[in-house]
Design brief:
single chain, about 55 residues, mainly alpha, two-stranded antiparallel sheet
């Protein structure tokens, strides 16, 4: 899935996803020839929407 798709699923912005990748908190599955990040759904299963994260604490 693309950065935008992951952002929509996790409830954060695309910029946040990119920042998490740069910080090493999230790893991309592959990069396209155009240098776009792509992620597998299984590697991103630990991301949840912000409301769900608040309910846990």
């Amino acid at each position: 899935m693309s950065v935008g798709q992951l952002a929509d699923r996790s409830g954060v912005s695309s910029a946040t996803i990119r920042r998490w990748c740069s910080a090493g908190k999230l790893s991309e599955t592959l990069r396209t020839v155009g240098n776009h990040r792509h992620f597998s759904s299984s590697s991103c299963s630990h991301l949840r929407k912000p409301k769900e994260r608040r309910d846990i604490s």
